[in-house]
Amino acid sequence: MAAGEAGAGPGPAPSRSQMIMDKISSGEEVGGAGGAYSYNTLKRLDQIWSSICEVQSDSKVPEVVTRVQGPLVDYDLGDGSEIFDVLVCGGTLGIFVATALSYKGLRVGIIERNIIKGREQEWNISRKELMELVEVGILSEEEIEQIISSDFNPSRCAFESKGEIWVENILNLGISPAKLVEIMKERFVSSGGAIFEGKSLSSISVHDDFAVLNLSDGGSLPCRLVIDAMGNFSPIVRQIRSGRKPDGVCLVVGTCARGFDRNTTSDIIFSSSSIRRAGNSGVQLFWEGFPAGSGPTDRTTYMFTYVDPHFGGPKLEELLETFWDLMPAYEDVVLENLDIMRVIFGIFPTYRNSPLPAAFDRVLQVGDASGIQSPVSFGGFGSLTRHLGRLSNAFRICLKYNFFTNILFSTNHKPPPFNFSTYLHFSTNHNLSPFNFFYFLNNRVEL
C-alpha cells in the first residue's frame, strides 16, 4: 500500500438530493435563472453562494466599463460592419426589450454567451402583466393563448395559524418560456435584429459619442446605447456596487413533480412555522406552489428563505435536504409516490440601495440587473414585462434626442411602490408581525 493510502476508506455517501437528481435527465441547459437542473450545477451555485458570503470589503473588482474622454476616432469598422443603435447584453430576458426597440425602427443587437432559449420550467405571471407584451406590440393575443400552459385560481397567502387570505388573478398563469422566447427570437430577427450567440462581454469603452463592446473572442461592436440585461450577477453591476456583499439573499429550492391529486389552487406565500434548521442555521421557511401545465397532477413547489450572507449560512443542498423532509407534509403527499421531473434552485441577492442608479453614460440596466424589483416580489420576467412599455419608450427618446448621461438615465428607474423581498428579509430578521405583510399586500403592492 502506497504512503498516504493507509486507512483510506470510501468517500462520503451521496446526499438524498444527489441520489434524486442523478436519476433525473437534466436536459439541455439554457441561460438565465433556473435554466439548469443538474446536481453539478447545484454544486457550482453553492460555490458561488459561498464566495458571496466570503467577500471582503477591500476585494478587488474587475473593471468592465471604462470612460474614455473625447469622441471615438479612428475606429476601424471593417467591411460590412456598422454602428448599432442599441446592444443588449443578456438574451434570455433581454430579447423582450430588444424586440420592442427593434419594432420601433432601431438597429438592435443582442450579445448572449449561451444560446437564446427559454427554459423548460414554467414562468408564473398574471394575465394583466402578460398583456403588456401585446400593448407594446411584440406579441398578439392569439399567441398569448398559445404560450399559456396552465391557468388556475384562487391563490392562498397564509402565515402559521394567523388565518388565510385568498386572492384571484395573481401569478395564476403558467407560461412556456421555451415557446415564448422562440417567438420573440423569430420576431427579433425578422424585424432586422442581429444576434451574437456564444459570445461573452469582456469590457466596454464609453466615449462621448459611442460605446464599444469588446468581446471575449477578440471582436468588438460599437453602439450608441448599451442595455445590461445580465441579471443579478451582471459583471457591470458588480463593478457599480464595488463588489459589495448583498444586504440579504433569497435562497430558493424546489421541484416540479407529478402525483398531486389535489392540484387546482396555488400558494403565493405560505409559512407554517417560525424557525427551522437547515444545515447549521436557523431559518424561516416560506412556500409557493403552482399547478404545472405538463399534466393534471403536475405541480411546482418552491421553498425559500431570506438570510444574511455570512460564513456558515445554509447551502442550497442543505436547504434541499430540508425540503425533502418538509415538503410532503406541506403538500400532503408521500415523497416516494411522486415522479420528480426537475429540481429547481437559485440565489437572489437583495440590496437596500435599489433601484440601482445609472453609473455610466450610455450604459443602463434593466430587469433584475437594475434592482428595480426584487425576486419573489415578482422579479425576473414579470418585472421586465411590467416596465417594458415605459422603458422602451424612454430608450427611444434617449436615442432620438441624444440623451445619454447617467443623470438623465437615472430618471428612468423610478422605485417600485413596495419591495416585497426586502420587507420579508427584514421582517424575518426583526420580528415584524406577519399581519404587516397582509396590509402591504392588500394596500401597497401593485399587482
From TrEMBL:
Annotated Gene3D superfamilies: FAD/NAD(P)-binding domain
InterPro entries (UniProt xref): FAD/NAD-bd_sf (IPR036188)
Protein name: Uncharacterized protein
Lineage: Eukaryota, Viridiplantae, Streptophyta, Embryophyta, Tracheophyta
